[in-house]
Amino acid sequence: MIHTPDLIISALYIAFIFVIGLWSGIRHQRKTKNNNNEAGEYFLAGKKLRWPMIGLALFATNISCVHLVSLAQSGFDKGLLNGDFEWMAAFTLILLALFFAPFYIKSGVATLPDFLEKRYDRASRDWLAIISVVSAVLIHIAFSLLAGGVVLHTLFGVDMYTSVIVISIITTIYTVVGGLTAVVVTESIQTVVLLGGAIIMSIAAYTKMGGWEPMVDVLKHTGEMNKLSMLRPHGDPSGMPWYAVFLGYPVLGIWYWCADQTIVQRVLGAKDENHARVGPLFCGFIKILPVFIFVMPGLFAYTLAQSGHLDISALKSIVGGKEVFDSKGIYTLMITQLIPQGLIGVLVAALLSGLMSQISGALNSISTIVSYDIYKRYNPEAKDASLVKIGKIAAGVSLILSLALLPLLNKYGSIFDGLNDIIAHIAPPITCVFLLGVFWEKASAVSAKYTLWIGSAIGVLVFTLNKLYPDTAIGQIPFMMMAFYLFVICVVIQVTLSYAYPVKHTKESSTLYWRSPWEPLQGAAWHGLGNYKVLSLLLVFIMAMLFYIFR
Predict the structure, then answer these.
(1) β-bridge mates for residue 322, sequence order
(2) How far apart are CA 131 and CA 85, in angstroms?
(3) Where in the cell is it found (predicted)?
């Protein structure tokens, strides 16, 4: 439980974000009330976003309570291993900046399903719209609510559902009223708060342990030095050897960072192509931090517990006569035991930042997809006011569905593993049609349609079999490798069907694929360090060095 001053700080923060979100959204809408582009202003902030805001908003939408809670949990359980998800993201953000963003901006699309229609056909657009809404509800909102509920229940002693419902309603109000402008402005603030809180926790854990060397000594003493390794050998008990990371993560990462509406919507609102390129690269540099400020504190918590400096007895319970240890609450224990009174409120504010930014970003993307890709499909003459209204209703309904899913998702032992397990079965067909669509001239509309349908059906079937029969050969395949295998199947399906049903390019689709890998590097670029090619090379070099150091 936390003290009154910390409660006040947390409450003031929520009120501050609520007011800022409403003010920025309403102010922007008043300014643009009579410019005949109400929907564009609401859903895409009038396409006026600059690279710093895009980068911060991308990071804030990605980092939620799920990351703060589950990365600390993974650091406690597995060491630095799950940091691979953070650092590999830098490479997929480079792909977004160099190869995908130019087409998104050039085609002037409001949604990624819209892009698929321009590159392929209407059927592909319809399917991606459905999958995008489902994934936003399930992955971006429901899992974030679950992580936030676990923390708020432990800290405040209130019912998990009560706390997340209150926070969700507050976030939904300013998101629905203010649109993407409110989302991006609040996300930029929340990124700073979230990073500040995470840095405070990292310093507290490091100080309590007495530095790096004492932590390493504890790992040596317990025979757990492998917790410092991010690239594990074949047969590692985690199920994530180094080759699984390099084969499986791109399948998940390209869908998440390059083809998921919730994330890419910030890029779609960019002022121009250079801002759309540099924003993701800026986010790529920020993604270096999570290993040190989200995962590392969990590893310090493990060594602190082993050395008797962190009491983890509260995470133990008796189930069926046996003692069970649930590490989901490790971040909460660190807050209450390592952080002094007064600063706890800041840490809670950081947690709330992650929760609120994730919910707001997902709700805005759902609003956009439902309005543009579903409602307007059957009402092509719909006015902007109607689109905005439908988008607001969709946001409210999505929140209710997300809350209803919480009991089911809570059955996962690890929030982070549960999240990625679901993504591994959703992502492969989408990653396939986007990659081949952008890089292969012969990828046809018929092949894309059937790849999405068949690939998604196979993913659902395999996921179901894994849960019903976990001891079978399929059930034993780690989710990272499963993602790769499903992706290979999808590539075979699309390539085969592309030759069986040759592509028939439209005037528009013929401009939406690269004719050579070097073509995207010929676009106009800023001079100096702001050049997207220079930034990309610098980011690749830094990430390669980091992986070498923590191999």
Answers:
(1) 319
(2) 22
(3) Membrane
Listed ranges 192-201, 232-241, 376-385, 477-486; the one with the highest mean pLDDT: 477-486
CA dist 546 and 298 (Å) reads: 19
Structure tokens at 522: 């010929």
Residue type, 476: Q
Kindly tell me if the per-residue pLDDT of 235 is higher than 60: yes
Helix (H) or strand (E) holding 325: strand 322-325
For residue 443, count other CB atoms closer than 10 A to its CB: 25
* CA 472, chain centre distance (Å): 30
CB 105 within 8 A of CB 271: no
Q: What angle do CA 117, 122, 125 make, to 5 degrees?
A: 60
Interaxial angle between packed helices 143-156 and 384-409, expressed in degrees from 0 to 180 and rounded to the nearest 10: 60
Task: Determine what percent of the chain falls in helix, strand and coil, rounding each to the nearest 5.
Answer: 80, 0, 20
Q: Over the stretch 424-458, which tens digit does the pLDDT of each residue have? A: 999 999 999 999 999 999 999 999 999 999 999 99
Please determine, for residue 41, whether its predicted confidence score (pLDDT) is greater than 60. Answer: no
Helix (H, G, I), strand (E, B) or coil at 40: helix
Is it the case that residue 460 has pLDDT exceeding 90?
yes
- Report the pLDDT value the prediction gives residue 261, as an integer from 0 to 100: 81
Q: How far apart are CA 213 and CA 216, in angstroms?
A: 5
Alpha-helical regions (H) of 307-444 = 330-338, 343-369, 376-378, 384-409, 415-439
What mean pLDDT comes out for the span 463-480? 86
- Kindly list the domain boundaries of the chain, sorted by start residue: 4-25+41-408
Cα dihedral 523, 528, 532, 535 in deg (nearest 10): 160
The domain over range 4-25+41-408 is classified in CATH as 1.10.1670.10? no
Long-range CB pairs of 494-500, under 8 A, 24+ apart, other chains included: 494/432, 494/433, 494/436, 494/443, 494/447, 494/448, 494/450, 494/451, 495/436, 495/447, 496/447, 497/444, 497/446, 497/447, 497/450, 497/451, 498/436, 498/440, 498/442, 498/443, 498/444, 498/447, 499/442, 500/447
Tokens coding 325 = 């240890």
Q: Which two tokens stand for residue 129?
A: 């719209």
Token pair belonging to 61: 């939408």
What is the predicted pLDDT for the residue at 395? 84
pLDDT at 198 over 70: yes
